[in-house]
Predict the structure.
Amino acid sequence: MTESTRNATLSLDGQSWELPVHSPTAGPDVIDIRTLYGQSGLFTYDPGFTSTASCDSTITFIDGDKGELLHRGYPIDQLASKSHFLEVCYLLLYGELPSPAQLEDFESRVTNHTMLHEQMVNFFRGFRRDAHPMAIMVGVVGAMSAFYHDSTDISDPWQREVASIRLIAKMPTIAAWAYKYHIGQPFVYPRNDLDYASNFLRMCFAVPAEDYEVNPILSRAMDRIFTLHADHEQNASTSTVRLASSSGANPFACIAAGIACLWGPAHGGANQACLEMLREIGTVDKIPEYIARAKDKNDPFRLMGFGHRVYKNFDPRAKVMKQSADEVLDLLGVENNPTLQVAKELEAAALADPYFADKKLFPNVDFYSGIILEAMGFPTSMFTPIFALSRTVGWISQWKEQLADPQMKIGRPRQLYLGETERDYIDIENR
Ligand code: CMC
């Protein structure tokens, strides 16, 4: 962190304290309150972390007002159109775009780790036959801590590297197998002659009874979905991974914690919830009714795929996703898809409505991703597992950055206690 040259002064009841101010390379200045409690005996209060930077990072930058997302400085729209997922993984993990030789070496390391330990099959089989794929993923990724214990000494950079590669490589196999198990089909093993996205599509959709050819346009669209979800700075699941890892916990267990957090409908579960909402709306004539419900404070309904904690402008990922939805549906000959029609009309109606404009609520990444995934043949229950697969590299990059930071401390928020003060225990017969 850079040396502070300015201070902020906090005053209360005639006393004042000086707090250093740090300037980032981009984004708002931060007031460093780490010494505040020691100096003043005061805590700050920020549930939901709306004004709190929990760490410093060099990986991803979001300007929510401009609608800008940069990975290591590179805009997401350039990465989505010119790069591909494994190159973006390299960029996130190591900080720079790879040379051709570095990329080839990285791709071959990932490819060589795509298989799961055969005993993990038994672990999958322990789940109820109708288990949600996210439930299976939380369990199986956590269980990797038992299967790959040889790479879990987090103080050793080499073991951190092996755990990272294993996670990126095995996550498509885990997500695909969670799906296969969920629908009662045999597991399809990875094929190392296929690229990352094609391999995942094949493991999801091939069956032993017939050949399966991966359509290159669909595999490109899949790769773009992975790329668009790869990292998003200190969101809820990433912060969960960092908090879990701050205790020195096992890397696979930390990623399982991230998957658990991602599952919620306010976070990664929004893509499933969004498609279900679009289907429930069903026809464009119902849109005004749902817009009215979203605006009604007495109705818990929210427009899924709309709004974001950080973006107060278009989510740049949503723009690419919308274009991708058009391409994929066109390819599949389903351009008159009623869900897409509802989505487009709903987006237009919400953007024209002063409620959404005043609150700066714009479509987010999840608004169009479900339509593409459904057109590819994925059921809604697979949307969040695909998000988890894609975000794994972001979680790992942030985890590695945190562990390499000599200033790392266990995360331990404080609280504003509003409960009873000390009182004496009352025997049960006297209550
Ligand atoms: N529909 C209707 N009203 C909304 C919506 C929405 N989708 N989102 C926010 N608002 C209103 C909210 O009621 C509040 O109004 P008021 O100020 O009158 O109380 C105001 O906008 C601010 O909302 P907030 O809940 O305080 O904002 P937040 O930053 O805490 O929440 C959010 C962000 C993403 C959880 C929220 O916008 C939301 O629930 N959106 C729908 C779920 C969704 O699409 N999530 C995916 C996020 S992107 C992918 C990811 O990061 O995982």
